[in-house]
Design a protein that fits this description.
The protein has 2 helices and no strands. The model has no long low-confidence stretch (mean pLDDT about 90).
Length: about 70
């Protein structure tokens, strides 16, 4: 009995913009949509998503800053 094996390949995507820029754009878009919505859970969810994206962008900036050094 012969076992057939398939090789899984990862799809690699070359991003046009850095992560930080994509996160900030996502946060701005979510805020823009939320501004036009009435009060409610959907609006709160979009605003939370915007805050989270902004927080991740700040963390990314901090981690990639030149002042951050590896412990000795």
């Amino acid at each position: 009995m012969q076992v057939e094996r398939t090789v899984k390949t990862r799809r690699r995507v070359k991003q046009e913009f850095p992560l930080r820029e994509r996160l900030i754009a996502s946060a701005m878009a979510a805020r823009r949509v939320a501004d036009e919505m009435p009060e409610g859970t959907e609006k709160d969810s979009l605003l939370r998503k915007a805050r989270e994206a902004e927080a991740v962008a700040k963390i990314d900036a901090w981690l990639s800053s030149p002042g951050l050094r590896r412990p000795k």
